[in-house]
Amino acid sequence: MISSPKAPNAFQYVWRSPWVRAAVFLLLFYLAYRLLGQIQTVVVVFAVAYLIAYLANPMLNWLERGRVKRGLGVFFVLLVFIGILALAAALVVTVSAQLITLLQSLPDQIGRLNDLLDRLFGWLGTHGVPGTDNVRTRLTEAVQTYVQNLGRNIVPLLQNLLSSTGTIFSSIVSIGGVLGQVVLILLLSIYLMLDYSRVNAALLKAFPRPWQPRVLEFTGLVGTSVGGYVRGQLVIAAFIGVFVWLGLTLIGVPSAAAIGFLAGAFNIVPYLGPVIGATPALLLALPFGWVKMLLVVVIFVAANQIEGNFLSPYILSKTTNLHPVAVLLAILVGASLFGFAGALLAVPAVALGKLVLDKYYFPSRVYTEGP
């Protein structure tokens, strides 16, 4: 005899309602949101540790192909990372002191700039050039506003960083402060680097099995666009910082390390570093005459041209493949919407969107045959 199908139980009967399912999923999203708000520090620590492991994984794979055990490779990467942290800490202290001196000396340079502009526009006025007073006023106001914003935003932060009683140093000696988080990030990153493939497999199991091939495919696109972009842009930013530092040192501009640090740090957002670093460099070169100011311009133009014509196309072409106009528009839109963080994330986000369009939209029937 054929048994009759079983009647649905109470849970199955209730779960059939789309309203019940929608309410349950909304409740789960709300609870997850509240939970993330309570453990956001833990989430950030894990995210930073995973990012370190993700960035180091290509080097570890390369070492493994050279018959170096992964544990020894992790130890080598850890030594390199600690060395970079130590060098960065020493550089930050030195550069911070130089930046404070630089920003505090800029008002004096503004006065010299005003005298120079007075002579220049006075000469133009005597030769019949109209509208010189208005142009001079706008130039002076723009430079003064730029310098005031730099001083207002950066000087207090740097002074607090160098102060032994500042919040950064006081939090280091506290339990669970910055030092504790750094140690925890290093420990987590070591475990993640050792078992990188197993951790990824465990994260993949959090998704339903039918979704997993698509998740792998999408994470591959993210790795191509975002991961490759981040690695490449860090290399480019380091080159710009060192190039500007050495160039300004050779021509004798004060605070060359500080300006190089600014140019390199802000060049993480493409094309922004030379723009940020050129203004204080020109003001500091002003007392030395036009020749030195012209050499400063040559250094920053050379840095920009090397980045735009050689480094970026060679390093980033395989990851973003975006036209410079698209890059600039992405930066402007990102900065308008979310400030500096938006400008920083705009290019990899647009690169990811381009890859998604190429992979899914352009081959689809919606694109080839129309909606």
TrEMBL record:
It is a multi-pass membrane protein. One of its GO terms (biological process) is transmembrane transport. InterPro entries: AI-2E-like. It comes from the Bacteria. Its main location: membrane. Coiled coil: none annotated. Keywords: Cell membrane, Membrane, Transmembrane, Transmembrane helix, Transport. The chain crosses the membrane at residues 13-33, 39-60, 72-97, 168-194, 236-269, 281-306, 326-352. GO terms for cellular component: plasma membrane. It is found in: Cell membrane. It holds the Pfam family AI-2E_transport. Belongs to the autoinducer-2 exporter (AI-2E) (TC 2.A.86) family. This is AI-2E family transporter. The lineage of its organism: Bacteria, Thermotogati, Deinococcota, Deinococci, Deinococcales.
